[in-house]
Amino acid sequence: MILDGQVVSQSIQTRLQSEISELTERAGRAPGLAVILVGENPASQAYVGMKKKACERVGVASFEFRVDADYGEDKLIALIENLNSREDIDGILLQLPLPLGYGYDEDKMLQLIDPSKDVDGFHPSNVGKLFLGLPTFWPCTPYGVIELLKCYQIPVEGRHVVIVGRSHIVGKPLAGLFLQKASWANATVTVCHSKSQNLSEITKQADILIAAIGQPGFVTADMVRPGAVVVDVGINRVVDVEASRGYRLVGDVNYEAVAPLASAITPVPGGVGPMTIAMLLSNTVLSFKRRHSYEF
């Protein structure tokens, strides 16, 4: 079974579009999302463009702040603080990575974002709430993985989930979500990383295998138990002289080799990627509702 994130994402966005229309009419304004892009990283520019189009589709007001790489940390701090105070903005997204060599402290910048507008779910306050099972914003990619499995009714409770990758963006928060006391979670979770020994022996124990290590084709057939569910979070550019753009996008899983073994698998592109954007929109609507709790 192919876990089609594009189809699920479109379904979520259709639902949000209807909800946002009603909320906008009642509140007198649309939910607002501010995106800050520092520098000219091509991948980041592409992501920001996709997010803008998604906002337009569902009715979220999109505010873009594109600044040069040498904008400076002091100015960036002032910009974030200004967005924190604006009543027309419900979510703030600082596109990562920030340019190297210009003195930016990514952790410091993320911590400056008002936690109530942290729709990326990266602020330490929101990360702590996630692990404690308290209401908060879930990071968009882990959130998307959970929603994708729920949509396809993949059973998780009591199963062994192995996550390859321990990043703050995917691996760690996803482990926290799968550990929650909920019908869509309650999993036994193992997190592997670059220092893990006998990796293939661990991954072959997985009922659900999550690849989020950032290395193209890293997960091979000999690492997967037949019948496992495989979720590929990776998205990597590899040179392809026959492609019109000179490259193609591949995941962290060797799809051609692993797909015949898996009971379900996500494609790249078209799997987890579209879900990430859908959950960003969902978090922005959630922030809007919380900030207008006196009205709704």
Radius of gyration: 19 Å
| pLDDT averaged over residues | 95
* Strand coverage percent: 15-25%
Biggest pleated sheet: 5 strands, parallel
- The backbone outline, from C-alpha atoms, is globular
List SSEs in N-to-C order. Answer: HEHEHEHHHEHEHEEEEHEH
Contiguous uncertain segments of 5+ residues:
none
Q: If classified by CATH, what would the architecture of the largest domain be?
A: 3-Layer(aba) Sandwich
Q: Would you tell me the structural class of the helices and strands?
A: alpha/beta
Quick one: CATH class of the largest domain?
Answer: Alpha Beta
Q: What kind of assembly state do the chains in view correspond to?
A: single chain
Q: How many E-type strands?
A: 10
